[in-house]
Here is the input.
Amino acid sequence: LDQPIIKIEAVGRRPKCHFELSSSDYLRAGRRPADVPNPDGQLVALDPSRYQVIEFKSLGINVRNTKRFFIVNPTNKDYSYEWQCEGISMRISDHKQSSSGLPNPFRCLTQKGQVMSGRKAEMEFHYLPQSEALVESMWRFRIKEQDINVPVLLVGQVSEPDVTFDLNHFNFKHTLVGTRGKGVIHIINNEPIDFPFALNCEVENKSRPVLDIKPMSGIVPARCRIPLRITFYPREERVYNYNVQLEIKRKSTKVSINIKGSGFKILSQLESQVEVQGDGGVQLSRHLLSPSATSKIDFGTSYISETRIKKLVLTNIGQFSFSYEWALGKTKFLAIKPSYGKLPQGDSVSCDMIFKSDREVSFSDLLVYLKIGPQSYTLSLTGRAKKPRLQFSFQKWDFGPCFLSREGVPSAEHILRVVNHETTNIEIDCAFNPQQHLTIDHQANVLAPGEDVLFKLRFYPQEAKKYHDDVVFEVNGSYKVGVIVTGEGVPIRLNLTKESDKLVNLGEIRSGQHNTRVVKLLNSSRIACRFRLSATPSTVEKLRKLHGHVDTKAPINPLDDPLATRLEELCTTYRPSTFLTLRPRQSAKIEFTFCPDRLMPNFREDVMIDVDGHAQMKLLTLMGGCYGVGARLDTTSVPFGAIVKGTIMVKTIQIENTSEAGIRFAWEISKVH
Here is the structure.
């Protein structure tokens, strides 16, 4: 089969002139106001199919807006063109004003020209609006060679730059005369381009302006906001009202902000109050202080750490509250409470000016200021702080090395004497808490002029270490005097030079014989040691009972020597029997003599050593005994009877030792024949 054939025919129309313009719906969409007249003055709607529309949108006035587009010559012949403006451009404001006599804001820069065949020619129009009204201008585009006549409608619209203040008004309210009130407002630019600005404000006195705004001119960057800093400085007690205008280039209307503020003055009263002893008791003396003159305040003479207070009462007698602040400088011995604050209308505040120094100080004409806004009170202060004239016999005492103390027995004591050389009574007390190693006998004392007080210091070292204590004495409950007390605890090291001497064997001897043993004692302590030998506590108790002391806690006569008494019972003496002092590394010999005068069973007796009341410890043990000689035979005769000559007969005799010690014996056979 033959393939089908479809015949297609068409006719193409080629324009003689083509405008390369973006399409506008100004006429088609009905955006053109109905009361805008045509160039002939008639209010007739324009046919969208007949008119080419070129729209201009200007951001602000007095801004040159440019439109460029091309005209294309699609023919094979060159031709010339011409632009003609039909009358004066319409300038419409509120759609009622006539445009006669007004300058045309549109201008064609390419009114005549030639377009080559198959080429383009660029057209250029300028729009320079003088007002914000909608403007239309009718133009004709003519090509005589082609008999072309095209109506072109130029439309100009102006939009105000969106640049304004962030506030409509700003109120400083009440501001103290002579002080500065400060605030911040902002200029906001919501447009995509920068805009220059300038502020305009009419003030009364430009040499001493009440209102100051910075900056007064500048540029607001695109899509930004810039701060304007406002300073309000009222000169009088009245209300101020200003309108500040913001002028923006290209913006026909001015933006304004209203700034208000009122000035007021402070009315205050400052008085000093002093308690005075009068006939009717304590009375309050009041004295008003003037802000225009320097007022004198005397604290007098006080002791170190003593507190002196001057009471000052500030009253707000004005109609507005105010803030106050005391300026003391860098003084460490003065304080004011409260030092600052806010005082409502009609209220009062009592300020205590406190003088207290921890060292000697003297001042005169020391200036202190009370600042209340621009107003201030000036006070000239005088005072002195001194040490109380107390004489301490020492400020530091060192007990030095001392033997460790037994419970309740101090190792050392010392007296501290304090004398009052003042002309007035002074109270002194020791603020030291008793410690295990140090106590002070004290109580609160009031010393009249010239009187003294004694404090006894007792040192009880508990450990072998150095001690350091700061003993504080309070004078008149405020001033403190420190006394340093030091010392060191050392152990007692009084030992026998030989370990074997801890057991001294006096032997077992007969009555009438004697035996002497000597031991050597060495002082290895760091300090001198005073000691004597003593009996054991159990021996002392036995002696007390033996000598008729019923009360076992009653002290023994110090002239008695319990050890000597006890050893006398054991027929033993020793020397030295009195107290002996050994320097460090010094030694001494102790001699024990055993001389029994009777039979005595073996004994063991512990000997103690008493180190000057600080410690009692076992030194050694004595042992010994006294025996008599005695023996007996089990028979007094040995009968042999008759025996054969030349033989031997043996008889056994037993001898018995009846003494408490071993004996030696021998037979006297020489007398036997």
User: Anything to note?
Assistant: DSSP finds two helices and 49 strands in the chain. Residues 390 and 420 are 5 Å apart (CA to CA). The longest helix spans residues 537-546.
